[in-house]
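Our collaborator T.R. sent over the components below with a one-line note: 'Predict the complex.' Nothing else. No constraints on interfaces, no templates requested, no preferences about which chain binds where. So this is a plain run: every listed entity goes in together, and whatever single assembly comes back becomes the starting point for the next discussion.
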Amino acid sequence: MQLYDPTTSAPQRNLSRAAPLASLDGKRIGILENGKLNATEMLHEVALLFEERHGCKVGAVYCKLNASAPAPAAMLVKAGQEVDFLITGLGD
Amino acid sequence: MPRDARIHEVPDDLLAAIDYCYGQGWTDGLPVVPPTVERVHATLAYEGRPPETVIATHAATGLELSVHAAAVNAVMAGCLPQYFPVLVAAFEAMDKPDFNFHGSTASTGGSAPLLIVSGAVADDIGMNADVNLFGPGNRANATLGRAVRLILRNVFQMIPGISDKSTQGNPGKYSFCIAERMRGNPWPLICETQGYPKGVSSVTVFAAGGFCNVENHGGNTPEQVLSSVADAMANYGCITLGQSVVVLSPEHMRIVAGAGWSREEAQAYLFTHAKRSVEGMKSVGKYRGSEYDKQHGASANALVESGYVHRGLAPDDILITLGGGDAGGHSCFIPSWSRGRGSIMQHGPIGVCIDCR
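Returned assembly:
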């Protein structure tokens, strides 16, 4: 008996990471909150730790309208121009 | 066949083949029909496009659903070949970005895609729109809904505990597919309200939460019947800005439409009355200022009442139609996935291309 496989192979994708920051000191933080309950509050608490430990500063806050979809490309491009790293969340 | 279509050689023994499918992790927990080459090819004959045609893509992973893979899973679900155009149309509708099938499947909210088939195709393939509408026993209803789940698992790898994180799930995740009842339906069919040409059937897909039976055997006015439904819609566990599906039983429809109410009037009544006060929402920790502002802001629907949170943003967020057996004051309300508007119901024509590029 010959059976077709019902699954699919994952596509080959070229993925690359941004180069890591040499240092966090003095860097500009972006907060990308996803609209979940307490996301803004939690992410600001996390940002506070970077401020205290590395002298970082929150540069901008971005808001996703849909927690389960990627942030709009334009928003990420803008964030890339305005801040040095993003803190994002939140899960349930 | 697609170049990457893989074949598994298994012993020519049906029970062994069923066990093989279990061993491969291809099932939803129930035995599947082994997807033999012959049966898959018979299913593909009902789709005019090449088998490698992609009909849906998973935004998060890039995994693609081809016509071929859909046919394989359709066979496994137990679909007859003539059901296949419905399944294809359903996934083409689910592929629309606003449906967000990744989010609605991966979420802790545990939604399941509800398929509502409207139009002559439902009768052509022998679907059930009548007694035991949401229950088992009809091959088309059961296997179409099941094929959706098998595709989500096998093609898109939405596996419980891995990429499907639903807290409690939902029985609809086995199968959630109905036909809109045409017999005795006083209102235009869903496919007609969706603007399809005469003779074209449609499938509507909705990221659905759990099914809520609304029983009322004593009410005999539209207001009494619909107030029962509105109360179900506004329960604290369900009230969000999300959309709703309401299926009125024939007994309830006779009361509502029999009094001369149109679909639009019923929608407006439900929207007006499916609400909770701001104080009530705050008392259970569900009030969100941003959501209230969205509902009551510049583009607020005229029926929105200050000081209240309504279910949905507008009456046409409530899809309402007829379904079920002739006897019984039992209608149902089905809420949208989790909080609000992460998924918006979509629809598509069955077996035809309306706006081909």
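Summary for T.R.: Residues 43 and 81 of chain B are 4 Å apart (CA to CA).
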